[in-house]
Amino acid sequence: MSKTKKAVILARGLGTRMRKSSGDAKMSDEQASVAAKGIKALIPIKRPFLDYVMHNLIEAGFTDVCLVIGDEHQAIRDYYGRDAGLSKIRVHYAVQKEPKGTADAVAAAEEFAGDDSFIVINSDNYYPLDGFKALNSDDGTGLVAYDKQVMIEESNVAVERLMGYAIVETDANGSMVAIHEKPSQEVMDSFGKHALLSMNCWRFTKSIFEACRNISPSPRGEYEITDAVNYDILKLGKSYHVYGCTQPVLDLSCQDDIASVAEHIGDLEVSL
Questions:
Q1: Residue 229 — φ and ψ, nearest 5°?
Q2: Which residue in 253, 228, 260 sits closest to 123, CA to CA?
Q3: pLDDT tens, residue by residue, 15-46
Q4: CATH of segment(s) 6-265
Q5: In angstroms, rounded to a whole number, what is the distance separating the alpha carbons of residues 54 and 89?
Q6: Model pTM?
């Protein structure tokens, strides 16, 4: 069985929350300058934030990354095409013309993926290595879901934000049977303190592209990857294995997150 080698990183977001000044965020002038542009992937924490994410992908055995970006993200192309000095991973690009949602962003990477299975992650999350290794251990569809209590105790995500994250429901075999978006407090409590949370860390096969083409926009007008996954399961017969992870994910959504992320990863060695 061949391992997945390709990873797609969703970096098309507008960075609206990152650009918004909190007034008292702890960051350097350089960090403030990049944050004001909303390019979260390039927030400097000794080196651009996305470098740390790519390092873990390399350590997990991935060889090719596709960055889904907008036409306005030339700074990302400049850095990874010229300044990063890459020797262990190849960086490709796909353009999402407008930010129409996560499923639309994944669809932009169809040419890159070809017939291969591939993983999809966010560009503003730092994911633990073990989750990437789990996704690279098989060729089927799946996702990593993260222990709620671990996230509360060890991540930098505020509890009130975590309470709005999607809960992944599994059967006795570890397959996903439902994903509960923006669960009520009652639903969250029903899954207990170790509920499994989705942080948008998926492994897909090429059927996901058919799914992305056949879904309708959500009530907020976006094409959501969770809707595409549901289509993949219900219409195309796919089964998604859930890999539970007891390590935290870090989040870099706004200026207030910069200092806490730097505290967690700033001393890590990175080799690309």
A1: -65, -45
A2: 253
A3: 889 999 877 889 999 999 999 999 999 999 99
A4: 3.90.550.10
A5: 8
A6: 0.95
Q: Which tokens belong to 31?
A: 């960090």
- Tell me the sheet residues that pair with 96: none
Are 79 and 51 spatial neighbours (Cβ–Cβ below 8 Å)?
no
Give the residue extent of every domain in the chain: 6-265
Instruction: Locate all alpha helices (DSSP H) within the chain, ordered by sequence.
Output: 16-19, 29-37, 49-59, 74-78, 102-107, 110-113, 129-135, 148-154, 159-162, 185-190, 207-214, 225-234, 257-265
Which residue do the tokens 């967690």 mark?
Answer: 264
Distance CA 107, CA 68 (A): 10
Q: Angle at the Cα of 124 (from 60 to 128), degrees rounded to 5?
A: 30
Measure the CA–CA gap between 14 and 97, rounded to whole angstroms. 12
Q: At 68, list the tokens.
A: 């889904």
Per-residue pLDDT of 153-184, as tens digits, reads 999 999 999 988 999 999 999 999 999 988 99
Taken in order 222, 64, 45, 83, the sign of the CA dihedral is negative
